[in-house]
Design brief:
Blueprint: E1 3-6, H1 10-21, E2 27-30, H2 34-41, H3 52-61, E3 65-68, H4 71-75, E4 80-83, H5 98-110, E5 115-119, H6 127-138, E6 145-149, H7 159-164, E7 169-172, H8 176-186, E8 193-196, H9 198-229, H10 233-241, H11 262-275, H12 281-294, H13 296-305, E9 312-316, H14 332-341, E10 345-349, H15 354-361, E11 366-367, H16 371-375, E12 380-383, H17 388-391, H18 396-401, E13 406-409, H19 416-421, E14 425-427
Helix pairs in contact: 1-3, 5-6, 9-11, 9-12, 11-12
The structure holds uridine-5'-diphosphate-xylopyranose.
């Protein structure tokens, strides 16, 4: 089977490489960025993702996968085209489908045989139907194009593993032809396949992401109350987790969720519901709690120090979570902005997120090469991401090397007793 994939971001590239890895022998990844394509052909992985580069190189050498910017050649005689381009947030919260529409136009102009077009990108309910109508109206050749929904559930940092060992494959189809083709593609993965109609499949993706976001916001809300009433949110989460109706995952309180999915997908579904005359109150609450959570620690800190002006402030961890270089919607960003506005001397450290952070803050902050350097003589330190290096840091150095050993930990990286014993002033979340 010939498979083309539009878009070489997290979803497109990981999907393409994993399809080749499980044995598909004719996979082509398409991207408009020539330079990116050339680098990929040379074996360079454009994203920071554990294990991906090795699989890219291996499958390219085996001739199972190719990369191209020539969409015409890539789409003209394939069996299936997977669309995995971005659907970023518009200013009103709705999903921007411009990239999907651009690819659809290219498909309509190019395909020369009956083709199944599969949308993997997260798209509003009804998009498959709309795009199918658009492509069929604008087809250059006398062929049939059918759309199917196949949402993606991978997480950054564990994307390859998540794809090779997915919890489930969801396919939303309107015909046996589409179902059979998709079942054939996913057969080598040996994972449960859930078949629904297209609208339900599109909804499964939003409902799953929004539920996880809601779970985090709920725990953050509970954490804030724990602080007031003298409970410990980690003990509370542990006690809850033994109930398998609740589960143990995504109960970790912190300074809010970030990344390229939860913030965007909560807002998009909320927008979609309002647009359809219905208010999704739970999702709205998740969004509001998350917005407040991001600045909760720093607001608390500002009461304690009164004035950040001229103060050396260390920020440890910039990415929205560990094991990625992605800083999109990372809680570190509004916190750094807050500090810059108050004229603090901000010094940041992250094992891999520094380059991306420089694109936002340029030389308005300092970039340290180590935790040691970042906290040296600092009067306050904020922990924003639970990188292993930060969690395993020798905490006695906060005491020894900071001007004032004052640590605000947004990810509960350290034990309260250990910090107190060393004489560190320590504030964390919900405990
Ligand atoms: C998420 C979904 O997990 C994935 O299924 C979907 O396909 C894309 O969106 P991702 O954005 O890569 O994946 O990261 P995830 O690990 O889910 O974390 C998202 C955010 O939630 C991070 O900022 C993380 O720090 C935060 N989080 C997660 C918590 O604050 N507490 C938790 O218990 C779990």
């Amino acid at each position: 089977m010939k498979i083309a994939i539009a878009g070489t971001g997290y979803v497109g590239l990981v999907t393409g490489v994993c399809l080749a890895e499980v044995g598909h022998e004719n996979v082509v990844c398409v991207d408009i960025d020539d330079k990116k394509i050339e680098r990929m052909k040379l074996g360079e992985c454009p994203i920071y993702e554990d294990g991906l580069e090795e699989l890219m190189i291996k499958n390219y050498k085996l001739g199972r996968i190719d990369y191209t910017s020539d969409y015409k050649k890539a789409y003209e005689d394939v069996d299936v085209i997977l669309i995995a381009v971005g659907t970023p947030e518009r200013s009103d919260g709705s999903a921007n489908l411009d990239y999907i529409k651009e690819v659809s136009k290219q498909i309509a102009q190019t395909v020369t045989k009956d083709t199944l077009v599969v949308i993997k990108s997260t798209v509003p309910i009804g998009t498959n139907e709309e795009i199918e109508a658009y492509i069929n109206k604008n087809l250059k050749n006398d062929v049939r194009v059918e759309l199917a929904s196949n949402p993606e559930f991978l997480s950054q940092g564990s994307a390859v593993n998540d794809t090779l060992n997915a919890s489930r494959i969801v396919i939303g189809v309107e015909s046996d032809w589409a179902r059979e083709l998709l079942e054939e593609i996913y057969r080598p993965f040996n994972q449960p396949i859930i078949v629904t109609n297209r609208n339900s499949a599109e909804m499964i993706k939003y409902a799953s992401n929004d539920f996880l976001a809601l779970k985090i916001s709920f725990m953050n809300d509970i954490a804030n109350l724990c602080e007031i009433v003298g409970a410990n949110v980690e003990d509370v989460a542990l006690g809850m987790s033994y109930d398998d109706r609740i589960g143990s995952k995504f109960l970790k309180a912190g300074i809010g969720y970030g990344g390229s999915c939860f913030p965007k997908d909560t807002k998009a579904l909320h927008w979609l519901s309002s647009h359809n005359g219905y208010e999704l109150k739970t999702v709205k609450a998740a969004i509001e709690v998350n917005e407040n959570q991001k600045l909760r620690l720093i607001r608390k800190a500002s009461k304690l120090v009164e004035n950040f002006k001229g103060m050396k402030v260390a920020v440890l961890g910039l990415t929205f979570k560990p094991d990625t270089d992605d800083i999109r919607e990372a809680p570190s960003i509004p916190n750094i902005q807050y500090l810059i506005e108050r004229e603090a001397n901000v010094t940041v450290y992250d094992p891999v997120g520094t380059q991306n952070t420089k694109k936002i803050f340029g030389d308005s902050i300092f970039y340290a090469n180590s935790i040691d350097e970042a906290i040296m003589d600092a009067e306050i330190c904020f922990v924003m991401t639970e990188w292993k290096e930060i969690v395993n840091y020798d905490i006695s150095k906060y005491k020894k090397n900071m001007k004032r050993p004052l640590v605000f930990d947004g990810r509960n990286c350290y034990k309260i007793d250990d910090m107190k014993k060393l004489g560190i002033e320590y504030y964390s979340i919900g405990r």
